[in-house]
Write a structure and sequence with these properties.
By secondary structure, the chain is mainly α. The protein has one domain. The protein has ten helices and eight strands. The strands form four sheets. The chain has a two-stranded antiparallel sheet. A two-stranded antiparallel sheet has the order 2-3. Strands 5-6 form a two-stranded antiparallel sheet. Bound molecules: zinc ion. Zinc ion binds next to strand 4 and helix 4.
Length: 243
């Protein structure tokens, strides 16, 4: 995972069709809970395939799955919602039927995911502490609840995961461990690919230290201020490299 930052809303020109879908959803949301329990909201799925939405989300997510970071050129990806639209799972078999249907057309809730991550995530969405109340607006929701799945837009993956040179992605917080487990971020399909990428990356770095040495070597000169910190990090990264 990589931090994407807040999502700038796509420029969606007013569309009568979307207007009708929004009105229909608002009508549903106003119905009493008992009535809602008997009838599911009609969500216009074509919204997620609409060109302005597709291109904005693709671009914002760098055309990669927000969780496993595989490119949409290499694996099948789709646009779905970060917070599920119904039956948000509490992580213990229970779920909240109405969460989070009111966010169905909120661009800030849209993410690009690969089909494997999507099928592992399903509608699971446990939170630490209380869940945000029904109808909490998008602008307030991240301040009202703490999801166990790391939020690619508002969360900070670097705080939750430790990426190791052998390709492993270790969760170092409750959120990191849950996200990694739920999405299978250390499954062999991802581990092998990530390890290969790390090998290439470290190979380039190692070559620049060993051959194109001058600039980099100056940083590792033990006589320079803070050389201990730099050498320590370099040793951790490259192991046997003589520094
Ligand atoms: Zn994925």
């Amino acid at each position: 995972m990589i931090r994407l930052g807040p999502f700038p809303n796509p420029k969606i020109a007013y569309d009568p069709y979307l207007g009708a879908s929004l009105r229909q959803l608002r009508d549903y949301l106003r119905r009493p809970k008992q009535e809602r329990a008997q009838r599911r909201a009609q969500i216009d799925e074509s919204f997620y395939f609409w060109e302005p939405v597709q291109s904005a989300v693709q671009e914002r997510c760098f055309e990669k799955c927000v969780f496993c970071e595989r490119s949409s050129r290499d694996v099948e990806t789709l646009i779905e919602t970060f917070r599920p639209l119904r039956d948000a799972g509490n992580g213990n078999g229970d779920s909240e039927q109405d969460h989070y249907v009111w966010l169905a057309y909120e661009p800030e809730n849209l993410i690009l995911v690969c089909i494997e991550c999507s099928s592992r995530k399903r509608t699971e969405f446990p939170v630490i502490g209380p869940r945000a109340p029904y109808l909490t607006p998008m602008s307030e929701i991240s301040g009202r609840e703490k999801p166990l799945i790391v939020d690619p837009y508002r969360g900070n993956p670097e705080r939750h995961f430790l990426f190791l040179a052998d390709g492993r992605c270790e969760g170092v917080t409750k959120e990191g461990r849950f996200t990694s487990w739920l999405l299978g971020l250390n499954e062999s399909r991802l581990l092998g690919a990530r390890a290969g990428e790390m090998d290439t990356f470290l190979g380039h770095l190692r070559a620049s230290i060993e051959t194109d040495g001058r600039g980099v070597a100056a940083y590792l000169d033990p006589r320079t201020p803070f050389a201990g910190a730099r050498i320590g990090v370099a040793r951790r990264l490259f192991g046997p490299v003589a520094v």
